[in-house]
Structures are given as C-alpha cells and as structure tokens.
Design goal:
- The chain is an alpha/beta fold and 354 residues long.
- Helix content is 29%, strand content 23%.
- It contains ten helices and 17 strands.
C-alpha cells in the first residue's frame, strides 16, 4: 500500500516534480523575454506554491482579495498586486492601509470614485494601476478613458504605476493569439494616453495563462498567469498543455459501474461544476484520454469511458478538473507527492473572499 492508498478519497494531489517544472519553465520564459512575472495566487492559495514561484524569480504575487493579500503578506511575500477595483470603504480600507504599511502594495482602480476612496484609506502608501478592458467586458475602462481615471488617482494623492488588464476571453478554442493582440493594443493605447496626459506611469501589466507565453506578451512589462502551475482539463482541451504537464488531480474511487460507465466519489464539491460551452465534459481522466465526466452531482461523478475498459468497483482513478482554481478553493489541503515523500499543504487562502 502506498501513502496515497492509505488516504480516504476524494482528495486533491499535487505532483511536486511536475509543479516545479511548470514553475521553472514559466520563470525561464519571463526572464528570456525580459518580462516581470507576477503569478496570480488565487489559483493555488498556498504559501508552499507561492514560495516556489518567488524562489524561481517571480517579482511578487497577484491576488484577488484583501484577505488573500493579508494571507500571503503574513507568509512572507513582500510585493503584492491586488488586481481588482476594490472599494476601500470601512474596515476594508483600514485593512488595506495596514497592508500598505507592511508590504509594497499595488491596487487596481477603474473609476475616479474608487481611486478617491482608496486615497482616503491609504494616502500615498499604496500605488495604483488603472484597469483597462481589453475585450473581456468584465471590469476596466476603455483605453481612451484610462487617462481620466489615472489623473483622478494622481490628484487624490495616489502614486500611479500604469495600466493593467485581464484577457479572460482567451479561454476559448482558437482565441489566445487574437486575444493577446487585443490585450497588447488596449494596454498600448491606454499607456500612450497616460503619457499624453503628462503622467510618468509606464507599467503595462497583462497576461492570462493562455496568452502569457505568446510573443506579443514580450512587449508588456509584466504578466500575471495563474493556472500554469497546475494546468487543468480546460487547458488540455484548448491544446495549451498536455496531461503530462498537469500537476494536480483529484484522487477518486469507483463506487458503481455499468456498461461503459463508472461512477466516482469525487463530485462537484471536489471538482467544481464549471463547464464552458465548448468543453466536452465536466472533467477528464488523464489515464483514459477518451473518457469524459458527463454528469456531476455533489458526491458523484458519472464517467463515460469512451470505449476504454471500465475500472472495477473500488479501483482508484485520477480526475483532472475543468477549472483548477475552483477545485482548490473547495479543499482544506493539497496532498503533495514526490521523492521527498507525502506532505500536506494547507490551502491557507481558501475562503478569504473579502
């Protein structure tokens, strides 16, 4: 019996060797391209993974919430970018001010109101970057409006670093190259607008995992990929990674079987329920590439084996979730395996949503 066999399923496993390879490969690319790498820690929420990224050359971390920033600051990260147009009112403003007094803190803004509120909370302790919409149409201003927000931030007393974007619409078949071009065009136009307005704020920060390795990204100053450390079924299906480079999976047990179908004990409460319109299933089995998770309930995953032999009841299988960020946020720990043995890595930033 192996150390993993002694653990009750389901649980998430991280292959430390593959993780290390992914971290080092991206760090080498960034160094060769002359681009600062600032990985998004919302993917792993783990001080262990963050330490590996920083040791490999990341300039700092990107986070999504004040809680995540507090967690990684406590874990020793000294340079954090809260890439979100956070409203710095009330207790959140006090928390941001305390953070800005401990670490180098950059915060996203996409409105004059948000910038003024942040200035009221933090004074000149934090710097800001203006979020630009490069086609994802979530948050951010159009490139022509970035200078107005930047000027409002500067007049409020904030230090303006530059502009940033998240090209989230790159997660679609055939999209990354076009989206990377849109990203670069939007950031270039916004940056030129800031310069024309008299602001010395040259930062151009972008990059999702699908776009972060493209040549166009080398024209940016900074990239913020997150999923690359683990990979997931979406990345495999988009052709952006291969199963051998996926470092995280759910260990699951077959609890029921019938012709061509197995049912596993890893349901939506372990894998997450996200399925893009183009995805062929809810999750994938790396050891049976033709198999698909075709239905999920809270504690069941129904797998169409796609013609491969149906495993026996009680047999364990590896399941790669569609969206790894969601799966990690559902568990308290990651089971890290490798030549060093088995370790339990707390998902310390889990649930820190405010």
């Amino acid at each position: 019996m192996t150390a993993l066999d002694a653990l009750d399923t389901p649980f998430l496993v991280v292959d430390r060797a593959v993780l290390r390879r992914n971290v080092e490969r991206r760090a080498r690319w960034a160094a060769d391209a002359g681009v600062a790498l600032r990985p998004h820690a919302k993917t792993h929420k783990s001080a262990h993974v963050a330490a590996a990224q920083l040791a490999a050359g990341a300039v700092g971390l990107t986070v999504a919430t004040v809680g995540e920033a507090e967690h990684f600051a406590a874990a020793g990260a000294g340079d954090l970018f809260l890439a979100y147009p956070v409203w710095a009112g009330g207790a959140r403003g006090e928390r941001l001010r305390a953070l800005a007094g401990r670490v180098r803190l950059r915060v996203g803004v996409d409105s004059a109101e948000g910038a003024r509120q942040l200035a009221a909370a933090c004074g000149d302790l934090a710097e800001v970057a203006v979020e630009v919409d490069s086609g994802h149409h979530r948050t951010g201003v159009t490139p022509d409006r970035a200078a107005g927000v930047a000027l409002a931030a500067a007049r409020a007393g904030l230090r303006v670093a530059g502009v940033f974007t998240f090209p989230g619409h790159s997660y679609a078949p055939g999209a990354p190259a076009d989206v990377a071009a849109q990203e670069l065009a939007a950031l270039t136009a916004a940056s030129e607008g800031l310069r024309a307005a008299g602001l010395d704020a040259p930062l151009r920060s972008g990059g999702s995992t699908p776009t972060a390795g493209l040549a166009a990204e080398a024209a940016l100053d900074e990239v913020r990929p997150g999923v690359y450390v683990f990979g997931d079924a979406q990345q495999v299906e988009l052709g952006l990674t291969a199963f051998e480079d996926v470092s995280l999976w759910a260990e699951a047990t077959v609890v029921s079987r019938r012709d061509g179908v197995a049912v596993l004990d890893a349901g939506s409460k372990v894998l997450g329920r996200e399925r893009a319109a183009w995805a062929s299933g809810y999750a994938r089995l790396p050891d049976a590439p033709g198999a698909r998770v075709v239905a999920l309930s809270e504690h069941h995953a129904t797998v169409d084996l796609g013609g491969t032999p149906v495993p026996a009841v009680g047999e364990r299988v590896r399941v790669v979730p569609n969206h790894v960020c969601l799966a990690v946020n559902l568990v308290d720990e990651l089971v890290a395996v490798g030549p060093e043995g088995v370790e339990r890595w707390p998902v310390g930033a889990r649930g820190l949503n405010s």
